[in-house]
From TrEMBL:
Residues 152-250 form the Transglycosylase SLT domain. Residues 1-21 are annotated as: Disordered. PANTHER family: MEMBRANE-BOUND LYTIC MUREIN TRANSGLYCOSYLASE C, SOLUBLE LYTIC MUREIN TRANSGLYCOSYLASE-RELATED. Pfam families: Sel1 (PF08238), SLT (PF01464). InterPro entries: Lysozyme-like_dom_sf, Sel1-like, TPR-like_helical_dom_sf, Transglycosylase_SLT_dom_1. This is Lytic transglycosylase, putative. It comes from Ricinus communis (Castor bean).
């Protein structure tokens, strides 16, 4: 959980828009991919281009803003290419892999091919600061929209003693509200439940939004109780596992986990989550399945 989901793309089962669309739709929508190819040619030749960019540094700023604001897969691919090739920025194969992963989630074929050859580790990447200015990102829009996914969270979160906004923050960061999201580590669905977590909390179909949400809420409730309501530690444990947090006696020094905690804080501002007492029946419902 917490890693960028890769490979499986699908329209949300509840018909909410998700930040995924085909290569054809993306190209028709803003022509970013063709523009990027032309930009490479023009910068190499020192000629003018339609974007009015005169350097790869400017290209980095342009595509980073586009990737952050609209999550456009062509812009994400462009960012991956810039970091992989060291154009306008220092070579960073981890960041390159992360951007190629983000684009691949949305069906960008070239990104999938580049990711397969990229030596970097997407999990170790800390994205550039311009990517954190996502006030109108797709996840932000859905987080505020209060649509069907929100209604499911609102229905179940109080039963598990989890703040609705905290659960929504986790969904926004984990899957961008895509019920079909699948990570390279096989984390699945809205709250990116790993197979072991699915078994632990009795989730039979992780791609079913309601089952996934209930399983994720069960795990969040367990973590909230275990870490006495410390939101940062709960978020870190959801991403890296409770054992990693215990071993490091705090947020693990993994760039991906530290970035994850910051992204959760973008949506959920509270530092402490109330630890509510549960009835014996509710506690029994949360007992992990036997392994």
């Amino acid at each position: 959980m917490g890693e960028s989901p890769v490979a499986e793309v699908g329209q949300a089962a509840d018909s909410e828009p998700v930040a995924s669309y085909s290569r054809e739709q993306s190209t028709l929508k803003n022509d970013a991919y063709k523009q990027f190819i032309k930009l490479q040619v023009s910068l190499a030749a020192g000629t003018k281009n339609s974007l009015g960019l005169s350097s790869y540094e400017q290209a980095h700023a342009h595509y980073c803003a586009l990737a952050g604001e609209s999550r456009d897969p062509d812009a994400q691919f462009a960012m991956g290419w810039l970091y992989s090739m060291g154009k306008g920025v220092e070579v960073n194969h981890d960041i390159a892999a992360r951007f190629f992963s983000l684009a691949a989630i949305q069906g960008h074929r070239d990104a999938r091919e580049w990711l397969d050859k990229e030596p970097g580790n997407a999990e170790l990447a800390v994205l550039p600061a311009c990517m954190h200015k996502q006030g109108n990102s797709a996840a932000e829009v859905l987080f505020r929209k209060r649509g069907p996914i929100y209604q499911l969270v609102k229905k179940h979160a109080p039963v598990y003693g989890v703040d609705v906004d905290f659960a929504m923050a986790v969904i926004a960061v984990e899957s961008g509200f895509n019920p079909k999201a699948t990570s390279r580590k096989k984390a699945q669905g809205l709250m990116q439940l790993l197979p072991d977590t699915q078994a632990r909390f009795h989730v039979k179909d992780a791609y079913d939004p309601e089952q996934n949400i209930k399983g994720g809420l069960s795990y969040l409730r367990w973590l909230i109780t275990y870490f006495k309501g410390d939101v940062e530690l709960v978020a870190a444990a959801y991403n890296a596992g409770e054992n990693a947090v215990q071993r490091h006696q705090g947020i693990p020094p993994y760039p991906e986990t530290r970035d994850y905690v910051k992204r959760i804080a973008h949506y959920y501002k509270k530092k402490h989550h109330e630890v509510k007492q549960r009835s014996a029946m509710q506690q029994a419902e949360m007992i992990p399945a036997a392994s």
